[in-house]
Amino acid sequence: MDPYFAEFVPLPKGRRQRRICIPGFEFLYVLEGELELHHGDQGCTLKTGDAVYFDASTPHSYQCAGQKPAGAIIVTMHQPPQSMPMPLRVVGATVAKQAGGAGR
Questions:
Q1: pLDDT tens digit string along 84-94?
Q2: Please, are residues 37 and 46 in contact by the beta-carbon 8 Å criterion?
Q3: Residue 15 pLDDT level (bands cut at 50, 70, 90)
Q4: pLDDT score, position 88
Q5: pTM as predicted
Q6: In the β-sheet with 42-47, what is the strand arrangement from edge to edge?
Q7: DSSP codes of every residue in 1-20
Q8: Is 45:3 a contact under the CB 8 Å cutoff?
Q9: Mean pLDDT throughout 50-65?
Q10: Which string of DSSP letters, residue by residue, matches the chain?
């Protein structure tokens, strides 16, 4: 998971953000302002306190929808392709390899 703060400034009239696609999922929480979100063929305007979770592999874009910049916390969760095993990430614990498929 990759969390970050993003600020979206108003764009000149008629200019649109380009759409992006990344493997995995995305969570977005609007801290301030208004943010226009386009996801596939759907769109919505998010306001302060709104949150959204979506499949980030679908083309999507964000754009400031107000006169003042919009701020948001975005958390992306990248997922490996199905053919690649998901690595085990352990924090603060010891991982022991199981021998011969025996139980814990």
A1: 555 545 554 44
A2: yes
A3: confident
A4: 46
A5: 0.71
A6: 42-47, 34-39, 60-64
A7: -EEEEEEEPPPPTT--PPPB
A8: no
A9: 92
A10: -EEEEEEEPPPPTT--PPPB--SSEEEEEEEESEEEEEETTEEEEEETT-EEEEETTS-EEEEE-SSS-EEEEEEEE----TTSPPPP--SSS---PPSTT---
